Amino acid sequence: MSDNTSNMEKVTRTVKEILADIDTNVGEQVILQRALKALNKEMERAHKLEIKDASKRKKSTKDASEKRDPSGFNAKQPVPPEFCEQPWGCAADQELPRTMLTKMVYDYVKEENLQDPNDKRRIFPDETLKKLFHLKDTDELHFNNFQTYMKRLYDRSFDTVDDDSSVTSASGSEASDVSDVEVTTTKSKGKGKGKKVVETKPITTKGKKGKKSTTASQNL
Which of 10, 29, 123, 194 suits 135 as a labelling partner, its CA being 20 to 30 A distant? Predict the structure, then answer.
């Protein structure tokens, strides 16, 4: 009798009640499926963003670690033989950036007061500059054609002065480059006493966005 009673107790729910439970479970399953689908889409978006960020970090680290060689006027080149004489004091086997040699001449012009007081762009060459650039008495030297005469020292062509617009226009930008290098001359000791030796020191400057940049120092 006890078994029959327990079986009867189990069948106390009506069909309506069971159908209601089924509908409830189905509704919950639909909600769970929608939530799962939304989670999968969110995970795909997050995964793409993480891959993109990782790629940016990798590229940034690679660029920071790579050392780019100087180019253009900042690249080291064999010093023209004219700069191996005094007062320039360079060695015959030296390789220096063209900006550094330009800075040396700029400083010499200012120290010797060779600029036209009415037009600072114009230079009155003394015997030292005439010898350096192989200037004739009819040649005019000013900051607009300064790099043209510098170019002749590297090309070893002194017959004509070509109006190289690309070189001339570069003189303006180079003036800002050479300002990062302080060139000083000191007298050497011992043998060769009285000769000048070129020394360079870095100067820390602020760039366009206020960031500080320091050029590498070099003892010549």
Answer: 194
